[in-house]
Write a structure and sequence with these properties.
2 copies of one chain form a homodimer. By secondary structure, chain A is α/β, with parallel strands linked by helices. The first copy, chain A, contains 11 helices and 18 strands. In chain A, 22% of the residues lie in helices and 26% in strands.
């Protein structure tokens, strides 16, 4: 018995998103059925819906910044109760046996994690579908708890934009009082500013766009440097202990690396195209260029708890799903401060309702 | 009173090295006058003598892998005694005040260290001249002690090739039992193999040249992979905790980065030209690409002591200085295993002798 679910999908590469119906699996003994409340719109949703990274699986229901409520649980689920407010991020399963999984770094699963969408379940053949949908069925171990006091719609982007920036900030040991910089002030960058500010670092935003100065300061930055000005490095040469580079367009790394102090680290969290790297800025100052990809389940929960404690969430614009194609265009023009979040209730209008209440058809027993 | 000193110099960019005379300064109260015994031939000597990095200072007496004996000392020198066997490496002074100098990382001096040659003393105007010469005057704080039991000619390359590879291996915390790889088996690479073997790692040499397999194993490598074979990465994907990349020619980094495990580090110690870097191998596995430049005085001494303890030295071919131009050509063709060392006695033949014994003219008091 499957669970008929309304959704929005890209039918093929680059086709506009459109209403779609899919069948969620009947929850197994360790599964949780989640009624989705909100889903963030990640820049990578657009890349994938347009097959810009290759190998995309269509039809594709994007969405991996999911907030919802537990509607039913499998027989052996002990961790969750019906009614719990929960989150689902970028992946919904992994091998659970490799060194990375055992270390709680499931995002680096050596056999490949199962993405929330645009990929397959562990059987390698069942396509996964994401959060632009009414509900989702996820193994209990890949579900996050939303701590009390967190604003649910603004929390959705934490599941990707949040953990993607939080994880390297913690992993590379950024400490209070250090000089930190954020390259790019978008969905990821604005979260990085908030985390770095909460950790007590001196935060500088490095941005091509002078228009973002006011926002950067409002978000918590101590300084703002316009990197489209030719002499920007004069005030930043050898200055930062840590730089998080959130830009996903292809760009030059060398000048940012020169802005690091001796033994400083710059971390890429986007996936820009190949860019000519000079050895000099690395060798002269023993600097490091690293990469980081989202975060594991344990660290994602830690990040959500940190956000609740520090009253951190994303700056968002809530849209009904019927506006998703326009939201994609605006995201591509950086015309959003800083993340679109879909109110999934918009999928549940009279013309979108499934036959029968969700909990009835979805119950695992 | 200056000290007339025979040497070999490049008179201009790319001119062959030829006999040359220079005046060493009269040793000051903190200086040490060193009669040079041996000087290693570093690949960077060739780059600089040919002004391939720009800004070279001519005439240039190269040489920064210097072994000698203390011939006289300044009034206030307490650290050294006439007759001590000592070494001089890549720099002979630094500001002594910046954070890097205070930390004992003089190679990263924020005001710029004073290189042993092809640069200036702290006054910014007096050109420094290197070890292709009979003697040199160096501040006592920038002189290294050669521990008993070390073979002097084979120790010369430790002052650059040795510390350049030892420092990142220690700084980035390589541990016994880990999987380590060395890219390129030349003057630097062969030292890296010896250090990594002595530290108890599993060492793999990654080389374009199948002909170097036997040598790699003889030097202590556990495995050898020919990277000019198309499928080399099949046996190395995600394998290494640490890679030291000693290649100075421009080359691709991306496939080597893929050979790192999660959280692995690759360190560049050469200065190759710009090369297109992909974000994927860094982001997927949280890998790091770093650089490292020689080492500080304290760590260089530690390295020399480590070499004495573990009976490590360079594999060398000793030449008279009259063969230096041929040695440069052979170095460029990688036709040396693994380092030329000049026997500076060859500068002291009857036609090279200075008037009067060295110690007489050079005494500081």
């Amino acid at each position: 018995m499957l669970i008929r679910t309304h959704a929005y999908a890209a039918i093929g590469p680059g086709s506009p998103l459109q209403p779609f119906e899919l069948d969620r699996r009947r929850p197994g003994s360790h599964d949780v059925l989640i009624d989705i409340l909100f889903c963030g719109v990640c820049h990578s949703d657009i890349h994938q819906a347009r097959d810009e990274w290759g190998g995309a699986v269509f039809p594709m229901v994007p969405g991996h910044e999911i907030i919802g409520r537990v509607a039913s649980i499998g027989d052996e689920v002990r961790r969750w109760t019906v009614g719990d407010t929960v989150g689902v991020g970028v992946f919904v399963d992994s091998c659970r046996e490799c060194e990375a999984c055992v270390a709680g770094e499931e995002q680096y699963c050596e056999r490949g994690m199962s993405p929330t969408y645009n990929g397959y379940a562990r059987d390698g053949t069942t396509p996964n579908h994401g959060g632009y949908s009414e509900r989702i069925v996820v193994d209990e171990s890949y579900v996050l708890s939303m701590p009390p006091g967190i604003t649910l719609d603004a929390a959705a982007p934490l599941l990707c934009a949040g953990i993607t920036t939080y994880s390297p900030i913690r992993h590379f040991g950024v400490r209070a009082g250090e000089q930190a910089a954020v390259v790019g002030l978008g969905g990821l960058g604005h979260m990085a500013v908030k985390f770095l500010e909460a950790l007590g670092t001196q935060v500088t935003v490095l941005s091509h766009s002078p228009a973002k100065r006011e926002d950067a300061i409002r978000l918590g930055a101590d300084d703002f440097v316009v990197t489209s000005e030719a002499d920007w490095l004069a005030s930043c040469d050898g200055r930062f202990d840590f730089i998080i580079d959130t830009v996903s367009a292809t760009h030059d790394y060398n000048s940012y690396l020169r802005a690091l102090r001796r033994d400083g680290t710059m971390v890429l969290v986007g996936l820009p195209g190949p860019s000519p790297l000079e050895a000099g800025p690395l060798v002269n100052g023993r600097r490091r260029l690293a990469g980081s990809m989202i975060g594991g389940i344990r660290e994602t929960q830690e990040m959500l708890d940190f956000c609740a404690e520090h009253q951190i969430a994303s700056d968002i614009e809530v849209i009904p799903i019927q506006q998703i194609n326009d939201a994609y265009e605006r995201t591509l023009r950086s015309d959003v401060r800083y993340r679109f979040v879909i109110d999934i209730e918009s999928l549940r209008g009279p013309d979108r309702r499934v036959a029968g209440p969700v909990a009835d058809t979805a119950a695992a027993r």
